[in-house]
Write a structure and sequence with these properties.
This protein is α/β, with parallel strands linked by helices and 435 residues long. The protein folds into two domains: 165 residues, Leucine Dehydrogenase, chain A, domain 1 (Rossmann fold); 147 residues, Rossmann fold. Helix content is 46%, strand content 17%. It has 16 helices and twelve strands. The strands form two sheets. It has a seven-stranded mixed β-sheet with strand order 9-8-7-6-10-11-12, with helices on both faces. It has a five-stranded mixed β-sheet with strand order 1-2-4-3-5. A hairpin with a 2-residue loop joins strand 7 and strand 8. The longest helix is centred in the middle third of the chain and has 25 residues. The radius of gyration is 21 Å and the shape is globular.
Length: 435
């Protein structure tokens, strides 16, 4: 039985057209960067593809994994480990490229990388139950299986981590529990970020950082528009670490959260949801099921008339087939690439603004940089210090984009231009481009 992609599924034949690639080419033309230079920045430095024979509950499961090291002109490769059934090498490449842009836009000394491990955990869980190898709940099964996967992954790639050549972090499907397995192998607190509280080199606020950054990006946008938080409404797709922390922070500022959805369904209340109460329910049950509010699907959520629509779950959820139904004033990309390139063009014609992912969800990598520097023997950070640093980086990033936005560029265009200019300048200074 197939529990993940084959090698052929994972690799495909050639890299498809991607959103970041198209945006970078447009930016290179605006900045008058040579096409050859742009091509060298778009393509990754190194790609590893590795079969993982993982022993899980007495059964060896062969998985396909990959690491894309995109660009380290400005610092060590940095990026999360994604564990998902549909991950492939080109998605991993796109995410690594986004991390290069994100770290450059935030002006921190890191590069871009990403890992992808292909497995359908629910299909494997069903098979294990049929074989009576595991009869517990899915969440416990996933916890055990992911620990085994990361241990094998670290056996294969630990040399990258222990050398601080590539510094992994949590991403979709992985979290602090998985990162501590890497730390257990390397015994180097600077080899991995997103470690659990109390583990050597951990950072207060790392778990909340991405959602906190989304919240602050929204507040900056309200300030630009002259809006007060209690005048605004928001709807959020995804209620994991990003969506949940963004929702509670926004409501705490006075924003009315009218809709929340995840893979299992969603809830809606035009008068506003109590996000702390929802979060407590979600922690107990693992879903919105049973919560006393009207039901809501992501399809309907994307069509809600709100000020801020925040896709904070996965990529490509707003596309050419549904972009025309969006009625929000602003889309805030809490996830990586939730809006496709084609949808961006449709939304631009509809005058729907986009706060791009490389800005809106940069709180996580900004905090990861603090964790990394702290683990190298730097200053110890408290929770208020972490949050203050995230706000400082967001303020500086916004100021860097603002002058370009005044010239008529969208925030997405401005963000790509700032990031590309910084990467190109560093690669030029380091003599890393072909002559």
């Amino acid at each position: 039985m197939k529990f993940g992609n084959t090698l052929e599924d994972y690799v495909h034949s050639s890299e498809p057209h991607t959103r970041s690639g198209m945006l970078l080419l447009e930016s290179a033309r605006r900045l008058r960067i040579r096409p050859d230079d742009a091509a060298e920045i778009i393509k990754p430095y190194t790609v590893y593809i590795q079969r993982l024979p993982v022993p899980i509950m007495g059964r060896v499961v062969n998985l396909i994994s990959g690491i894309v090291l995109h660009n380290r002109a400005r610092g060590p490769y940095k990026g999360g480990i994604r564990i998902a059934k549909d991950v492939d090498i080109w998605e991993t490449t796109e995410l690594a490229r986004l991390m290069t842009l994100k770290t450059a836009l935030a002006d921190i000394d890191l590069g871009g990388g990403k890992s992808g491990i292909s497995i359908d955990l629910r299909a494997l869980y069903a098979a294990m139950r049929r074989e009576k190898r595991f009869l517990g709940e899915f969440r416990e099964f996933a916890r055990i299986a992911k620990a085994d996967i990361i241990i094998e992954f670290t056996d294969q790639f630990g040399w990258l981590f222990s050398g601080r050549h590539y510094i992994p972090a949590p991403d979709m499907g992985s979290g602090a529990e998985e990162m501590v397995r890497i730390y257990n192998a390397t015994l180097d607190p600077a080899s991995v970020t997103g470690k659990p509280d109390g583990v050597e080199g951990w950072l207060p606020g790392r778990t909340e950082a991405t959602g906190y950054g989304v919240w602050y990006a929204v507040l900056k946008d309200m300030e630009r528009r002259g809006l007060a938080p209690d005048q605004c409404t928001a709807a959020i797709q995804g209620f994991g670490k990003v969506g949940m922390h963004a929702a509670t922070a926004l409501q705490g500022s006075g924003v009315r959260i009218v809709g929340l959805t995840d893979l299992t369904g969603g809830i809606y209340d035009p008068g506003g949801l109590d996000t702390l109460d929802v979060a407590a329910h979600y922690a107990r049950h693992g879903s919105f099921n049973g919560y006393k509010a009207r039901s809501l699907t992501s399809k309907r959520l994307f069509g809600l008339r709100v000020d801020y629509l925040i896709p904070a779950a996965t990529g490509h959820v707003i596309h050419a087939g549904n972009a025309d139904r969006v009625q929000a004033r602003v889309i805030v990309e809490g996830a990586n690439m939730p809006v496709t390139y084609d949808a961006m063009k449709i939304l631009m014609e509809k005058n729907v603004d986009i706060i791009p992912d490389i800005y809106a969800n940069a709180g996580g990598v900004i905090a990861s940089n603090l964790e990394f520097r702290q683990a190298l023997g730097g200053q110890r950070y408290t929770l208020p210090m972490t949050f203050a640093h995230i706000r400082e980086r967001f303020d500086a990033t916004y100021d860097a984009m603002k002058s370009l936005m005044k010239k008529g560029r969208t925030m997405t265009e401005a963000s790509i231009d700032v990031a590309l200019q910084r990467v190109h300048q560093t690669m030029t200074e380091r003599d890393l481009l072909s002559r």
